[in-house]
């Protein structure tokens, strides 16, 4: 097996409310203070696990997906499950195939969005629709091996609220994607107060309490990795190796990833805005020093030969710096503009679920 069961706590000082000494004890403290859905169901009743899966043009994946995932979920003891499939405006046969699956199995629910809203929105829709006491966002392309799911559940039983699955290596990603991801994490975490754990995607287990906390965050532009990190909670880590896509193509181009990274920076830091105060002061100070030098030199040596080169370079440099500054302002103002509209994150066209006939 190529995963390592290697749990450790992430930043425990920010996660604990009453500083319990062991995870199990922590769970009790929290459960007592805030009874969850899971608790309301009673201890003998199996807990409901919601697997939340966004689908965008994944017709080639659907057969393989359900035959890989369903047996794994069925094998987990003491847990019932539902698979919340969010169809994110697929233009291929995805919706029809999902409805077919859902017809045969009442545990498969389909949420059909009105158009393609993007993965972050689709995931938000799935989290809102999920009814489980524990929720696991999961990609349709089987890049995250389903066999890790029971390991996440096991950790949850030890008393964690969040169990993140961390890619120990990214050899299945291209060199460029790997390097740019590493640079992204470095810059993001240096810049933003909300640190996102490196090489952790959306694949993770979260409890009902965490889902409800996420729902309370009002922003409409949702950088889920950041939001997951922002809410905190007691977090465990399970390492795994990410597989190549089973079929179909990645939906994220270089340009989309770049914008995704900008979304991350601007959602969680105002440093790019504030830095211009310092750049400006620095440049202005340099200009004053240089001007004083010129004045003194003119006094001593008389009028010097006019310097076209120094003049034009100063103009170009300052012009460039100003344009960058304005561009950064634009990034933020654009986001304020979107947030101020207060539009919903997604729209649902319809929901499908077949009646449960298993008890009859
Ligand atoms: N996805 C989506 N809407 C989009 C793009 C992607 O719902 O606009 C889904 C896609 O179907 C898949 C998951 O998000 O289940 C991850 O996408 P992908 O595998 O293309 O991303 P990558 O693994 O390359 O980062
Ligand atoms: Mg993928």
Notes on the protein architecture:
By secondary structure, this protein is of the alpha/beta class. Helix content is 49%, strand content 15%. It has helices spanning 12-15, 23-33, 37-40, 62-74, 94-104, 119-129, 149-157, 175-191, 208-215, 224-231, 254-268, 271-301, 308-341, and strands at residues 47-55, 79-87, 108-113, 134-137, 162-167, 200-207, 235-240, 348-352. The longest helix has 34 residues, at 308-341. It is elongated. The structure holds uridine-5'-diphosphate (UDP) and magnesium ion (MG). Residues 54-56, 58, 88, 116, 118-119, 122, 139-141, 143, 250-252 line the site of uridine-5'-diphosphate.
Q: Strands, helices and their partners?
A:
Elements: H1 12-15, H2 23-33, H3 37-40, E1 47-55, H4 62-74, E2 79-87, H5 94-104, E3 108-113, H6 119-129, E4 134-137, H7 149-157, E5 162-167, H8 175-191, E6 200-207, H9 208-215, H10 224-231, E7 235-240, H11 254-268, H12 271-301, H13 308-341, E8 348-352
Parallel strand pairs: 1-2, 1-4, 2-3, 5-7
Antiparallel strand pairs: 3-8, 4-6, 5-6
Helix pairs in contact: 8-11, 12-13
The protein binds uridine-5'-diphosphate and magnesium ion.
Summary of the model, kept short:
The protein is built from 13 helices and 8 strands.
- C-alpha Rg (nearest Å): 26 Å
The level of helicity is 40-55%
Q: What letter string, H or E per element, gives the SSE order?
A: HHHEHEHEHEHEHEHHEHHHE
* Overall spatial form: elongated
Helix/strand-derived category reads: alpha/beta
Oligomer: single chain
Strand order, main sheet: write it out: 7-5-6-4-1-2-3-8
What is the mean predicted local confidence, pLDDT?
79
Q: Ions, cofactors, ligands: which are bound? A: uridine-5'-diphosphate, magnesium ion
């Amino acid at each position: 097996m190529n995963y390592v069961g290697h749990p450790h706590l992430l930043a425990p000082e920010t996660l604990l409310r009453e500083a319990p000494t062991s995870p199990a004890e922590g769970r009790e403290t929290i459960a007592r203070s805030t009874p969850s859905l899971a608790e309301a169901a009673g201890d003998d009743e199996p807990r409901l696990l919601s697997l939340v899966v966004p689908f965008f043009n994944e017709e080639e994946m659907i057969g393989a997906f359900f035959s890989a995932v369903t047996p794994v979920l069925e094998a987990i003891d003491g847990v019932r499950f539902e698979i919340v499939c969010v169809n994110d405006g697929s233009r291929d046969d995805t919706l029809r195939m999902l409805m077919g699956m859902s017809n045969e199995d009442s545990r498969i629910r389909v949420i059909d969005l009105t158009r393609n809203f993007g993965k972050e929105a689709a995931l938000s829709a799935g989290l809102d629709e999920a009814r489980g006491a524990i929720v696991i966002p999961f990609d349709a392309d089987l890049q995250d091996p389903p066999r890790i799911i029971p390991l996440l559940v096991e950790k949850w039983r030890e008393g964690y609220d969040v169990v993140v699955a961390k890619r120990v290596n990214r050899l299945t990603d291209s060199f460029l994607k790997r390097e740019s991801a590493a640079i992204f994490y470095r810059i993001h975490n240096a810049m933003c107060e909300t640190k996102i754990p490196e090489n952790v995607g959306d694949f993770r287990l979260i409890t009902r309490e965490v889902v409800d906390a996420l729902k309370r965050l009002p922003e409409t532009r949702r950088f889920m990795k950041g939001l997951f990190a922002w809410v905190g909670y007691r977090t465990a880590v399970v390492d795994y190796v990410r597989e190549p896509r089973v079929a179909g193509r990645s939906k994220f181009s270089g340009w989309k990833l770049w914008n995704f990274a900008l979304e991350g920076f601007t959602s969680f830091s105002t440093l790019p805005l504030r830095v211009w105060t310092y750049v400006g002061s620095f440049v202005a100070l340099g200009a004053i020093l240089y001007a004083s030098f010129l004045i003194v030199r003119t006094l001593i040596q008389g009028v010097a030969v006019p310097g076209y080169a120094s003049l034009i370079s100063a103009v170009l440099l300052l012009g460039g710096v100003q344009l960058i500054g304005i561009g950064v302002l634009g990034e933020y103002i654009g986001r304020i503009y979107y947030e101020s509209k207060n539009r919903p994150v997604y729209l649902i066209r319809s929901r499908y679920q077949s009646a449960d006939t298993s008890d009859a």
